[in-house]
């Protein structure tokens, strides 16, 4: 494609956003297209954000079925609020906030309302076994409380600053810092390294 | 373990069934998006309607003028139509209706009915993709096209009143005298409350985890289904029905002869008094009540009578768009569908035991 053709494409894309691949569009552009009814835009937003939201939920709840439902519900909540969504705000943190807060709620509820088995569950649920490189780290993380797991996941998986985490979880920044410190110390002890 | 090792471990941990979960969620999200109406700019007609309302307001404000008197008479004519004559119009029943007849469950769509098997109670999932059904001591999720059982739970006690949460994440139901909540995929079945009255629980529209339920002692509890945190609690002498307005702001707690509407935002309460027994209620954008008195049932929407017929009505259901109201009399060979001032009679082939359980989009 010539320079002139690039210029024409950019000009067109600037006005009507046609011709630019979906993967190169910003979240704000995709949200606007989704608000107008574009299924392709929703599909692209899902492709961009599902992985992190699902992984974050699973690391907090350590339950495959619950993590799937929590991440899915975060996307459906976003869909329900799509018309009111402020496109100047990034979509990812909003989804992560919903997913992680619900994961914390779910974990607390499991402690409050212990599951009682019915006689039969026909649909098989996914195996709870895990593996991979960080198996020890993930197992040590699972031994922490949900609030501590959440701050570790938000900080070290999703890369948010303590200030951003404080806003997401509606906590004082000092509480986030102390939870992070305690969680990392507990992980170090669990991995037999002594406090970091 | 340094920071890089921790971050790599979190990034690379194997999430069980990640591919399957992604595809299932993707299908659900795209389906939900497909059912959503795109945002539209205000149309010229809407602008003209606003102008017309403004003109009418001016006319009304001039109380003694001839135009004002004419408008007032027309408004009275519109709303004082208690016994309209039904006409055959099957198109009035757009969408899919769940009906139980005895211990068999049916889906009625486009004038045809499909059996989903032997179930005595049922409810739609929020987007009509599944049906939660109960019979004896079994709760199940069904495919509404052919009744295929997706999952089921078997309890020692009788299961009744399945109700699917608006976000699709939970199903609440009564097992024995306990309130139980299970995830929409059939996992994590938990005991959520004891001594539950035989009244269907009601999920709050727009709040996917907020549930109202009634206890034997007349206590109505509104709580978060995940955290069990009690958000509100009301005492009532007798609870027969619970129903939320479609904006999730008002909760109707109906007894046998009266009811109370609780505004959970302001805390205000409004009494609902009727001259008979409340035999059915449906709360959408408007409150519809069926009141039985002297051998007749009258259906009132926001206090105005829109239907009246002999016998005791059993069911009221608002359509998914909240504009049409379906009223079902036992023994009648048709349902009455009220839309604005029009009433249509839609024939069906159910006997006296037929009960409408829900109305979903096509």
Description of the structure:
Chain B: This is WD40 repeat domain-containing protein. The complex is a heterodimer of chains A (196) and B (362). By secondary structure, chain A is mainly α. Chain A folds into two domains: 22-114, RNA polymerase sigma factor, region 2, helix turn helix motif (Rna Polymerase Sigma Factor, Chain: A, Orthogonal Bundle); 131-196, Arc Repressor Mutant, subunit A (Orthogonal Bundle). Chain A has helices spanning 3-16, 27-35, 39-61, 64-80, 91-112, 135-142, 146-156, 162-169, 173-190. Residues 1-18 and 118-133 of chain A have low confidence and may be disordered. Chain B is α+β, with helices and mostly antiparallel strands and 362 residues long. Among the domains of chain B are: 48-77, no CATH class; 274-362. Chain B is 16% helix and 43% strand. In chain B, helix 3 (44-61) packs across helix 4 (66-79). The longest helix of chain B is centred in the N-terminal third of the chain and has 18 residues, at 44-61. Chain B is globular and about 80 Å long.
Overview in brief:
Chain A is mainly α. Chain A contains 9 helices and no strands. In chain A, helix 4 (64-80) crosses helix 5.
Secondary-structure blueprint of this entry?
The complex is a heterodimer of chains A (196) and B (362).
Chain A: H1 3-16, H2 27-35, H3 39-61, H4 64-80, H5 91-112, H6 135-142, H7 146-156, H8 162-169, H9 173-190
Helix pairs in contact in A: 2-3, 3-4, 3-5, 3-7, 4-5, 5-7, 7-9, 8-9
Chain B: H1 3-12, H2 18-34, H3 44-61, H4 66-79, E1 87-88, E2 96-101, E3 104-109, E4 112-117, E5 121-124, E6 131-135, E7 138-142, E8 149-154, E9 159-164, E10 170-175, E11 178-183, E12 190-193, E13 202-203, E14 210-214, E15 219-224, E16 230-235, E17 241-244, E18 250-254, E19 258-263, E20 269-273, E21 277-283, E22 287-293, E23 296-301, E24 304-310, E25 315-318, E26 324-328, E27 334-339, E28 342-347, E29 354-360
Parallel strand pairs in B: 1-28
Antiparallel strand pairs in B: 2-3, 2-29, 3-4, 5-6, 6-7, 7-8, 9-10, 10-11, 11-12, 13-14, 14-15, 15-16, 17-18, 18-19, 19-20, 21-22, 22-23, 23-24, 25-26, 26-27, 27-28
Helix pairs in contact in B: 3-4
